[in-house]
Each structure stands twice: as C-alpha cells, then as structure tokens.
Amino acid sequence: MVKALVVLGSIFAFLSVFAIWTERQALNTDDWVATSDRLLANQEIRTAVGDYIVDQLYENVDVETELKEILPGDTKDLAGPAAGGLRQVAGQAAERVLETSTAQNLWEDANRSAHEQLIAVLEDKGEAVSTDEGNVSLKLNTLVTNLAGEIGIGKSLAEKLPEDAAEVEILRSDQLKTAQNIAVAIKGLALVLSILTFAALGAAIYLARGSRWVTVLSSGIALIAAGFGVIIVRKIAGGIVIDQLVTTESVKPAGEAAWSIGTSLMVSIATTVIVIGVLFAIAGWLASPTKAASATRQAMAPVLQRYPAYVYTGLGILVCIYFLTGPTQGLRSFVTTLIVAGMAAFGIHELRRQTQEEFPDAEFSDAFGDTRDKVVDAVKGANIGERAAKLRLPEVRRPPVPGTGAEAPTEVLGEEDARLQRLERLASLHEKGVLSDEEMATEKSRVLDKG
C-alpha cells in the first residue's frame, strides 16, 4: 500500500504540473500578456510577425493605387515598380516598427483584449462572443496601420482596411462550447491534483511507521522523477507540435521559439516540484540511521529540544515571505502552500521526537566539542604518524639450519620483546627531543594497549 501510494503521488504530481500550467498560461490574462511581451522580444518571432504584417498590408490594401495618389505628375507610372520595391523596404521596416514602444504597446493591448474576450467566452459571461456566433481573434490591424504610416502610405489607411484584416483566429464559434467545458475541468483539476499529490504521499508516510524515513526519501525521489518527467515530455511534445502545426520551413525557428517561451512556465512549475522533492529527500536522509545523519541530528538536538517555538516561528516566517513575494494564483496556490507547510511542521515534530529519544541530554558543546576533538586528533595523528614511522621493528633472522646451509624463515621478535624494544625507542626519541611529553604519553599508551 505504501509503495502504491508513493507511485500514485508521483503520477498526480506529473499531471498537476500540466494542469497548473494550463490554468495559469491559458486562463490568466496577466500571465498571458507577460508571455506575449516575451514572444515579441524574441528575434525569430519578431521577424515572423513582421513578415505577417507586411503580407496583410499588401493583401488588404492596393499599395500601387496608394502610391499613385502620392506620386506627382508623370512619376505615377512608376507606382507599380515602386510598390514591389517598397515591399522589400517594408519587410525591413516592420522589424524596426515592432521594436518601438508604440508597436509593443499595440501588441500588448491586442493580446490583452483578445485574452479577456476569450476568458469572457470560456467563463460564459455572455459578453463579447457567444457560442452560437462569432469567433475569438487576435486583432493586429493597428500594427498594419502603424507599419503603413512608417513607410509613408498610411495616413488614411485605417479607414480602408477591412475589419477582418490581420486577425489571427484563436477559437471558432463551433469550438467554444468544448473550450468552455475544458476550461471548467482544468480549473478544478489543477487544485484537485495538487491536493491528491500531497494526500497520497502524506498517507504513505503516515502508514510507513516502521521505516518512515525510507518512505519520505522515496517520496522525494518520486517528486523529482515527476518534475524531470514533465521536462522530458515537454521536449518531445515540442518537436511533435512544431512538425504538425508549422509546415513552412522558414517559420519553424519562430515556432520553436514560441513553444520554448510559451512553455517556460511549465518548466518553472516542474522545477518547483523538483525542489520540493529535494527537500523531501533531505528530510528522509536526516531521519536515516546513517552516521552523517546521526551527527547532524545531534548537532540540531539542542535547538530542537530547547527552542521549538523559535523553530516553528521560523517556519511560519518563511511561509509568510513566500505569500508576500511569491506568485499568487488564488485558492490552489494558497491551499498547496499550507499543505507543504503543514507537512514541514509534522516533519519537525517527528525530528524533535527522534532527537529526544537519541540525545535526551544533548548540549551545544557536544556537537562542537566532538568536531573540535576530531580535528585536533587528526592534526596530531598526522604529526605523530610521521615521527612514529621510524619506530618500525627490524626483522631478525634465525641462524642457518645445521647441515643444510640454508637460512631459516624470517621471524619477528617475540611479542613481549617487541613491546619492550618499542618502549625503549620511544624513551630514546623523547630524550633527544624528537617527541614531546604529550606525544610520548600517547605513543606509550598505544604500545601498552596493544598488549
């Protein structure tokens, strides 16, 4: 049951990332407008948008006629060739226009207007467009007019542009009802999946009484796997989506850039899941029976046992800072943050209980004193080791076996003799000043302890 719950929690975490991304990216106007600004800031996308605006200008306006009205006298006959040459100039001018603050404001306003209209339809507010008639479109005709003015033919162009010029269709009327149903499902699903993720992992940790630290560690690994799984799927899906939707090879770089920017929020959410997973893994390790974890618990024991109020207050401050500085995404963000904070508080409680059982009389000097002693012993051991290396016992050889001329096997001195000889060598080195009093006492103790 515990293993099944951990796996289930990982699956819920994986699906919740996509649900949260869809809710924030597709159903939040401010997030979408911010993303649209980043899209236009990209060189590949700006080039593609510029080419689209130029195409729309020439498709919806008779540029040659407009030039004839501008050119004086006999030069009107040059309007045709001039219109063709002007198209090349317009392509270069379009990118310059889109870099201006005026064009960027028009782009932002167009995206905000389209998204607000989309949300009104999806939430079935009865405004703008209904599910029976009309479409939701991104209107870029103001950018076409802006470009025409930049190249010198656009003062009266706004009146001549058709109403549907430079409109990018987002949803058709026959798709809106389905979109409404999906939007409702996504909004509820993001919150439900987030709660189910922590509910499954929390239940697994609660049930794993005998090996709780293993389950906490496994939960962290499961969350990390879910986060990296999302990143991998995003990479694979990006290639499929671009190949299916972008058929013009020259536009593919812009499509790839749009996918990368549009799904960057998904990577951010997946990264958050990975970070939470790392915290779970650290918590699991901290409760493990390993030497390093035990030493860490011993160092933390005095604080956990004597100042629990400060520890819980610190946790509360961190949660408050997140609420004040982190992204606010309504009920889902509020609930999931409280759940994570609650699990952290439970983890601190369990860690306090464990340290009380292991180190009931823990003092601040324990951990620091042990560390200091280990460092001092290591330094002394290195110095004494170099000097004591000279004290290795020489080997003595037995006399030749009579009648064979062969030497007997090498044999080390007897145990008692060897000990006495080592003590004599130590005394000699001490007298010569090679060994200090403290080092002499240490080495003598080692020789006698070895028997």
Give a concise summary.
The protein is built from 18 helices and two strands.
How many DSSP H or I helices? 18
> Which structural class best describes the helix and strand composition?
mainly alpha
Poorly predicted residue ranges: 127-132, 393-398, 404-413
Helix content: over 70%
Mean pLDDT, rounded to whole units? 77
Report the C-alpha radius of gyration, rounded.
38 Å
* SSE topology string: HHHHHHEHHEHHHHHHHHHH
Quantity of strands, as a count: 2
Taking the sheet with the most strands, its summary is: 2 strands, antiparallel
How is the largest sheet built, in terms of strand order?
A: 1-2
What this model shows, in words?
The chain has 451 residues and is mostly helical. The chain has three domains: 156 residues, no CATH class; 174 residues, no CATH class; 66 residues, no CATH class. It contains 18 helices and two strands. Strands 1-2 form a two-stranded antiparallel ribbon. Helix 3 packs across helix 11, helix 4 crosses helix 5 and helix 10 packs antiparallel against helix 12. The chain starts with a helix and ends with a helix. About 5% of the residues have low confidence.
